[in-house]
């Protein structure tokens, strides 16, 4: 590895005992493929739910089954239609719910327990409102292109990290008693041209005749990059999957049997229902035979489907299967146990928030990534004077709940940004801004605090300014300063510039940096030798316009943090929380360093294969500004004594998995086979969490990226304390997709394990 930014510690060669034998029976495509009743998949702990679902469906006529799969209630069997609602930030559009952070923020904590806590609490809010199915969590878009407008809603650009979070999300929702309906399946990587003309969610650029675009990806990258997290989701208990509104290999995703019947329902053993994203369904039998289980009553009318059963266009077995899949998730999460409160509409005063604000604040602070910290700039220690800059520091004029938009939003937001848009929209009961939190802190610390809550207000000094509210030398002396950004910056012990980047469903980003905001930062830094920059962004935000400016002493970088945003930022700025967030994607020096932009053609060939984000930067030796996994602390850590051992050699005795198909794929894909441990010491002066990361280099024969994340642990270490951190690797973590064999193979050879200090120096 050529990165100057990468330390490899204790690299170790580990020869695996992978089998001599290389034989497999390719899976058979039959008409019963993907049917629950085919018994090709061992349902495991779904078996009871299967029996209950079968008993219910057995009492239904075909016409009632059609009612069921089109979202109707069926009085004769006492079945009430399920309520489905967006999204990962809690019940969307509801009052008396928590204003949660976005998934792309939460994921940068790299902490399984914090992820679980948040997902569980989100799930309980759905449960408490009487909603049965959450259209969440959202694994993908995965992030083939950093311009993707919807990455704010998703779980980072690395399939392993994304998958662990996605699996915990489905497990936590299940534990909360609701059905997790994960999305989007699959390869819906950008907003541009996602939907044909006239679609509800179509952006101004999506009315083209080439929409929806078709994503074409080779089978290897399909499995190793995009399908990967869905294994975790299914294993975690996911009862629903939302298929995407786009196409794969020229056919709508929701009507593609190779995607839904073969990959999802057979290879992954998914037992639940597939429901379509907007406009995902276009034909009755294409969708029914393609694997869609829930659809529109105008396409799946009684007449059409009953006639189809008669003339052989649809099998009775498939109709029964669709009905089963619509109810099995309900039983799996015990929604039949009579405990769930009644469904209420969005304005009912049913307060489901509990103590959840504490989780929003804790996770927000834990998610923040300290990118730069020089001259001991942070943490702040009761500074005598402080000046805040930028519209992102304070409230937007009309409050935080923006109009729901599925047609795109501007690239920046004129107020404190703490939630996304479209399906990523947060419902805020309140929003603590940084200006509010820091003002309270200043009041108790005796700090003199000033602010200009605008990026351009008096951007230049008074001598060159005209009107426009800036540069009017109307007061002088006392506490009044000339109202310009440079004048407010001059003499402040610390200046904090706040910037953001906005995007959401329906349109992609048009920029990864912003001229107006960058000019503001430079303007502040021109007069303030202690300029701290706070960035809250929907995705990668290029910082190179000013990152090397010596007066920019610190950068705190994070996602959109929800209702406690200002408090979470304050916790880190003042050191009440020692930052431990780590980037879940790469921040490049230049836009042109990223290999994939927005696709403008009808067919989008994913020619980069597995090589997105750090895997691409590694392969072509691009030095990023801040690499995937990067993040500083107020303390320092020291690594030693890496060791690896095979913990289950019999599980590695064959090239291909030998276990039966179960929910989550072949059972032995999940067996722990290797354990890696490393000693980590906090050798600095303050307590802090360290996120230890394990990267694996496969043998060349596996044709894998140079290194891949295959383990991580967040550990609290007191100053002077050390601990043994252990990473447990499953068989799948050392497997590659063998296209010929159509199976996950462990290739014999040397595997190199490294626990990195991603510290950028
Ligand atoms: C494969 O399909 C054929 C029919 O197309 C069937 O005869 C055979 O039994 C199937 N094999 C397996 C292993 O399911
Ligand atoms: C119908 O289901 C509801 C719960 O959904 C239950 O309270 C009620 O007792 C059931 N009625 C009958 C007749 O089974
Ligand atoms: C019903 O299921 C929910 C969700 O799993 C659980 O919290 C509750 O305790 C259950 N109620 C009973 C009576 O078992
Ligand atoms: C639409 O796409 C074209 C390129 O195909 C681009 O130049 C234009 O800026 C886009 N418009 C919007 C509103 O996104
Ligand atoms: C799409 O086509 C490619 C190339 O033929 C193939 O490798 C891939 O498996 C196909 N994808 C699906 C979902 O069928
Ligand atoms: C099918 O017919 C039943 C009555 O026979 C009716 O209640 C239901 O609405 C119909 N469903 C659809 C999708 O047309
Ligand atoms: C910021 O200030 C400029 C004048 O310098 C004004 O034109 C603009 O509307 C202000 N922006 C906001 C969001 O208030
Ligand atoms: C920063 O500027 C202040 C005066 O505003 C000065 O006292 C201080 O020494 C400077 N710090 C550095 C590191 O240059
Ligand atoms: C840094 O700040 C000082 C004032 O403290 C200023 O004189 C100097 O020009 C600034 N440097 C840059 C690169 O803006
Ligand atoms: C996508 O790949 C196919 C098959 O290689 C090729 O025919 C087609 O021209 C490509 N399309 C684009 C837009 O690159
Ligand atoms: C802590 O360990 C790191 C990594 O080995 C090292 O660079 C640093 O100098 C150490 N700090 C102290 C105070 O020993
Ligand atoms: C298995 O054998 C096939 C055909 O000889 C070969 O292409 C493939 O790479 C082998 N797989 C492994 C994991 O060795």
From TrEMBL:
<dbReference type="InterPro" id="IPR002772">
    <property type="entry name" value="Glyco_hydro_3_C"/>
</dbReference>
<dbReference type="InterPro" id="IPR001764">
    <property type="entry name" value="Glyco_hydro_3_N"/>
</dbReference>
<dbReference type="InterPro" id="IPR036962">
    <property type="entry name" value="Glyco_hydro_3_N_sf"/>
</dbReference>
<keyword id="KW-0378">Hydrolase</keyword>
<feature type="signal peptide">
    <location>
        <begin position="1"/>
        <end position="20"/>
    </location>
</feature>
<comment type="similarity">
    <text>Belongs to the glycosyl hydrolase 3 family.</text>
</comment>
<dbReference type="InterPro" id="IPR013783">
    <property type="entry name" value="Ig-like_fold"/>
</dbReference>
<keyword id="KW-0732">Signal</keyword>
<dbReference type="GO" id="GO:0008422">
    <property type="term" value="F:beta-glucosidase activity"/>
</dbReference>
<keyword id="KW-0119">Carbohydrate metabolism</keyword>
<keyword id="KW-0326">Glycosidase</keyword>
<dbReference type="InterPro" id="IPR026891">
    <property type="entry name" value="Fn3-like"/>
</dbReference>
<feature type="domain" description="Fibronectin type III-like">
    <location>
        <begin position="690"/>
        <end position="759"/>
    </location>
</feature>
<keyword id="KW-0325">Glycoprotein</keyword>
<dbReference type="Pfam" id="PF14310">
    <property type="entry name" value="Fn3-like"/>
</dbReference>
<dbReference type="InterPro" id="IPR050288">
    <property type="entry name" value="Cellulose_deg_GH3"/>
</dbReference>
<keyword id="KW-0624">Polysaccharide degradation</keyword>
<dbReference type="Pfam" id="PF01915">
    <property type="entry name" value="Glyco_hydro_3_C"/>
</dbReference>
<dbReference type="InterPro" id="IPR036881">
    <property type="entry name" value="Glyco_hydro_3_C_sf"/>
</dbReference>
<comment type="pathway">
    <text>Glycan metabolism; cellulose degradation.</text>
</comment>
<dbReference type="InterPro" id="IPR017853">
    <property type="entry name" value="GH"/>
</dbReference>
<dbReference type="GO" id="GO:0009251">
    <property type="term" value="P:glucan catabolic process"/>
</dbReference>
<dbReference type="Pfam" id="PF00933">
    <property type="entry name" value="Glyco_hydro_3"/>
</dbReference>
<protein>
    <recommendedName>
        <fullName>beta-glucosidase</fullName>
        <ecNumber>3.2.1.21</ecNumber>
    </recommendedName>
</protein>
């Amino acid at each position: 590895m050529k990165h100057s930014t990468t330390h490899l510690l204790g690299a170790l060669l580990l020869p695996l005992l992978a089998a001599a034998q290389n034989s497999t029976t390719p899976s058979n495509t039959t008409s019963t493929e993907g049917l629950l009743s085919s018994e090709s998949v061992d349902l495991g702990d779904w078996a009871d739910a299967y029996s209950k679902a079968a008993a219910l469906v057995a009492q239904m006529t075909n016409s009632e089954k059609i009612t069921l799969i089109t979202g109707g209630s069926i009085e004769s069997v006492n079945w009430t239609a399920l309520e489905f609602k967006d999204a990962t930030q809690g019940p969307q559009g509801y009052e008396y719910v928590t204003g949660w952070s976005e998934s792309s923020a939460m994921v940068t904590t790299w902490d399984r327990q914090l992820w679980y806590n948040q997902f569980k609490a989100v799930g309980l809010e759905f449960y408490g409102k009487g909603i049965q199915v959450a259209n969440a969590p959202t694994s993908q878009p995965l992030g083939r292109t950093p311009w993707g407008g919807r990455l704010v809603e998703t779980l980072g650009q690395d399939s392993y990290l994304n998958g662990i979070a996605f699996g915990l999300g489905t497990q936590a929702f299940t534990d909360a008693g609701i059905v997790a309906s994960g999305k989007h399946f699959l390869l819906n990587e950008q907003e541009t041209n996602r939907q044909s003309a006239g679609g509800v969610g179509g952006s101004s650029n999506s009315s083209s005749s080439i929409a929806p675009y078709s994503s074409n990806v080779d089978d290897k990258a399909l499995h190793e990059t995009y399908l990967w997290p869905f294994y975790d989701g299914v294993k975690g208990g996911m009862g629903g999957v939302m298929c995407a509104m786009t196409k794969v290999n020229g056919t709508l995703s929701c009507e593609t049997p190779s995607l839904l019947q073969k990959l999802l329902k057979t290879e992954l053993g998914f037992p639940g229902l597939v429901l379509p994203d907007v406009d995902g369904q276009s034909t009755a039998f294409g969708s029914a035979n393609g694997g869609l289980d829930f659809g529109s009553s105008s396409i799946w009318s009684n007449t059409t489907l009953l006639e189809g059963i008669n003339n052989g266009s649809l099998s009775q077995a498939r109709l029964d299967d669709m009905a089963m899949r619509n109810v099995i998730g309900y039983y799996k999460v015990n929604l039949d146990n009579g405990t769930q409160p009644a469904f209420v509409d969005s304005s009912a005063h049913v307060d489901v928030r509990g103590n959840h604000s504490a989780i929003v604040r804790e996770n927000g602070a834990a998610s923040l990534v300290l990118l730069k910290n020089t001259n001991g700039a942070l943490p702040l220690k009761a500074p005598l004077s402080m000046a805040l800059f930028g519209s992102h520091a304070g409230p937007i004029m009309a409050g935080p709940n923006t109009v729901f938009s599925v047609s795109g939003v501007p690239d920046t937001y004129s107020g404190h940004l703490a939630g996304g848009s479209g399906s990523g929209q947060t419902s805020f009961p309140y929003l603590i801004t940084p200006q509010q939190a820091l003002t309270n802190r200043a009041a108790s610390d005796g700090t003199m605090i000033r602010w200009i809550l605008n990026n351009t207000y008096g951007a230049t000094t008074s001598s060159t300014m005209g009107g426009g509210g800036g540069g009017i030398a109307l007061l002088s002396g006392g506490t009044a300063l000339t109202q310009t950004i440079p004048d407010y910056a001059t003499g402040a012990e610390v200046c904090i510039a706040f910037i953001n980047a906005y995007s959401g469903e329906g349109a992609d980003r048009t920029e990864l940096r912003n001229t107006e905001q960058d000019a503001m930062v430079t303007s502040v830094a021109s007069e303030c030798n202690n300029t701290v920059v706070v960035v809250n962004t929907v995705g990668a935000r290029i910082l190179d316009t000013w990152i090397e400016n010596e007066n920019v002493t610190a950068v705190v970088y994070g996602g959109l943090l929800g209702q406690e945003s200002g408090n979470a930022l304050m916790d880190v700025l003042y050191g009440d929380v020692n930052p431990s967030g780590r980037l879940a994607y790469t921040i490049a020096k230049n836009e042109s360093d990223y290999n994939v932009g927005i696709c403008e053609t009808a067919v989008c060939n994913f020619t980069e294969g597995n090589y997105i984000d750090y895997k691409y930067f590694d392969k072509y030796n691009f030095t990023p500004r801040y690499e995937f996994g990067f993040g500083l602390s107020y303390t320092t850590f020291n690594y030693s004594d890496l060791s690896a051992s095979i913990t289950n050699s019999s599980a590695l005795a064959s090239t291909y998995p030998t276990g039966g198909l179960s929910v989550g794929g072949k059972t032995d894909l999940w067996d722990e086979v290797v354990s890696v441990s490393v000693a980590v010491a906090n050798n600095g002066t303050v307590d802090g969490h360290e996120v230890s990361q394990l990267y694996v280099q496969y043998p060349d024969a596996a044709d894998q990226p140079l290194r891949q994340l295959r383990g991580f642990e967040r550990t609290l270490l007191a100053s002077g304390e050390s601990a043994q951190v252990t990473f447990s690797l499953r068989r799948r973590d050392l497997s590659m997709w063998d296209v010929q064999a159509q199976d996950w193979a462990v290739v014999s050879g040397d595997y190199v394990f490294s626990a990195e200090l991603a510290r950028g120096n």
